[in-house]
Amino acid sequence: MTDRQTFAPSLADFEALAQRAVERLPPLFRDHLGTVLLRVEDFPDAEVMAAMELETEWDILGLYWGRHVGMKGDEPSGALPDMIFLYRRPLLEEWCEGEDSLEALVTHVLVHEVGHHFGLSDEAMEAIEAQAA
Predict the structure, then answer these.
(1) What is the DSSP letter of 30?
(2) pLDDT > 90 fraction of the chain, expressed in percent and rounded
(3) In the prediction, which pLDDT does 15 show?
């Protein structure tokens, strides 16, 4: 056994990784994320599981939870801010089975969660990811 042990990234490590990914995104895309809360959790909660009709907590890597872009500006008082959830354990599982770096996978999930919310095409999201690489 060596003097150095390797552990999976913690929730705090994942938050830092996600923040660095956000900072690499193009300015226009990144500016939107300035008001969006970024949350890292091990797994989705029961509410998300039910809303997304998930069979298991491993079936989702991330989620954009918020008001549709066409509804902005008419938020009722007390409305929660838009949030992006990253689910650490499913992301780690995907990373272990894939060929991309963990940073690339986190960036991919962030871009796709926001991109789908704004109705971006897959091609547009790929271009944004390429700029962040």
Answers:
(1) H
(2) 43
(3) 92
- 62 contacts 110 by C-beta, under 8 angstroms: yes
Coil, strand or helix: which one is 37? strand
83-87/62-65 β-pairing: antiparallel
Alpha helices in 4-78 (DSSP H): 11-24, 27-33, 46-51
What is the C-alpha to C-alpha distance for residues 29 and 9, in angstroms, rounded to an integer?
26
According to the model, what pLDDT value does residue 127 have?
A: 86
Q: Characterize 87-102 residue by residue with b for buried, 16 or more Cβ atoms within 10 angstroms of its Cβ, and e for exposed.
A: bbebbbebbeeeeeeb
Phi-psi map region of 103: left, alpha, beta (phi>0 left; psi -120 to 50 alpha): alpha
The predicted-structure confidence for 75-91, as pLDDT tens digits, reads as follows 555 677 889 999 999 99
